[in-house]
């Protein structure tokens, strides 16, 4: 983040910290010297004006009800200043204009109470867009992964950030960088997928986009959260340090070193017995000393309190606060509890004042850089109407949805002809329930549903209505039958669905998830599952419709992958839509009609069996299928990276620029791709690396580069990946990251299991230690189409 532009002159008598013409560090140091211990501690706290329990059911954060009693008043919380205002817009149904005035009121109270007039940082959730009433709801993060389009993610994040900044929000609690390791985990929908490079490439662009708009991005959850035992939320993490470094931490390092992110949020789950909220090796040694992070570390909601109440590594709230601050935590969210006694802890010798100053300096630096201490600071807009769901936003949301939908299978039934006289049965719970398009951190599912509201808060067209609109000028008639709900055990509606299918020429069966929190949904935070069968009685519905003999197009609207092995071979086509956002209905309809040529690719595999988890493509030989070793075959039905469209592509001539390179050299890998169909389309070219012999067990293959390219019929592109030797690095036996000499295999193709091109190169020389250097983390790509060169949406 950079300081806003400064005026040419400053009024006489202006305190140093309010003078934007002075360097940021000078302003911060001057203000820090003026603060009392209590005022310093106040800058590290927060306050959440939560809804009355009689107005809203459940909670928006884990164990929220446990912190409902003996809460401090807002007036008491700001007596010595305040670090953050928690979710002034995203806690209850409130219009944008009213939200601006609400935030202004809170800020005036904070500034008016503060002896030195220091405003608070206002933070909000923004994983699927700004989480507030009436704001655009973009596809869930798992859909970003399916789009394989970093620049599109950056554009979306920039738009989200502009909307947030326009109403006075300074920091967004996104993106999520957790790498999927177990599909049963409820928060799979919030992740970008199962490959660390894909996750890192897309979330780094999200960080850039949000911060380009003037809003600080927050990485979460640092680190290991998604690798919990059995995919259970908050469960212990038992992975080894090598997997942590070479898989889990990769996206975080990319977003810190390349994206220059401004904030990091800790993970709830302990890693080998150490909670991240109290881990100095993670929050200070690695994050700051090794990676050079300069922003603030903010706690996940009540994570500092959990050190005492859940992890049992602290004797009382003060001890929890002291441990966390000393480890490298800077701000306690969503409310001040454990950090409330930091001043007393310093006076009593339980905490060094230098550690308190360290955190306060980081918070004040952000406030100065955000312009909060400049003369004339206004937490809101200049007035007038505030449109958080503009036409431009909706067009972008639709493009994001369209590029994220994955066509898994098609026997030729798709695209549907628009001028045919026929009847199509649209069956299933997702067909008429647009809430299924939205993630658990959408305002609709995260907040509005808790207030007894059955609506969505924004305009959303259902799949059945979108199909009706899509084919309005043709002879197609649609008949809708829900069949079953998402979780209700009642199957009485299956008979109606069967009748509709029997009388139809085609059945579009829509099944999937309805996101919620802590068990109120089939997907989302705290909505973990025991296996990967479709939720509720939806599998019975699919089987019943398939039994009619009517051709079936199966449409999945989900936040996680579900097992399709029981009925995939009997479906005419299978479409996967990962929670596609408010324009999801139109995007699905467009794919079915052929108006949209699907270009999404799987960011997670689709399992064949309901059990046998966890299991992702990023695994060594014995983690996959090995005949004679186990009777279980964990190979997916559809692999990571898979997806087809209405265009076809050929891959030719993987060419390497060198047969061998030094341990700090680069090899260029060129792939020629041709559109062999009569329709323009997009292809995701994927490059995978294998390390046949290494000093530790390595994955069979790993994604090291990708590019999404658009080609006209018959057009070819030469895609050149610039692979540095650092991209072969791994954590060796001595727990140092190294580039090890030897032979490596590169393969290119349209998915992790469809790699028609292969070549090899050798890294020569001695082992190179890259532990203490800022190694190359990305694989740049150049794309040459026809006779002209252009920049691809590539990483």
SSE topology:
Blueprint: H1 24-34, H2 37-42, E1 46-48, H3 74-77, E2 84-86, H4 96-113, E3 121-124, H5 141-147, H6 150-166, E4 171-172, H7 196-212, E5 216-222, H8 241-248, H9 250-257, E6 263-266, H10 280-290, E7 296-298, H11 303-309, H12 317-327, H13 342-347, H14 353-369, H15 391-404, E8 406-410, E9 422-427, H16 443-446, H17 463-470, E10 476-481, H18 494-502, E11 506-512, H19 538-546, E12 552-558, E13 573-578, H20 584-593, E14 649-656, E15 660-662, E16 666-675, E17 681-690, E18 702-711, E19 716-724, E20 730-731, E21 737-739, E22 742-749, E23 757-764, E24 768-769, E25 781-785, E26 788-790, E27 793-794
Parallel strand pairs: 1-2, 2-3, 3-4, 4-5, 5-6, 6-7, 9-10, 9-11, 11-12, 12-13, 15-23
Antiparallel strand pairs: 8-13, 14-16, 16-19, 17-18, 17-22, 18-27, 19-25, 20-21, 21-24, 22-23, 25-26
Helix pairs in contact: 1-14, 5-15, 6-7, 6-15, 7-9, 11-12, 15-20, 17-20, 18-19
List the main descriptive attributes of the protein structure presented here.
single chain; 795 residues; alpha/beta; 7-stranded parallel sheet; 6-stranded mixed sheet; 20 helices; 27 strands; 25% helix; 18% strand; disordered N terminus; GH; hydrolase
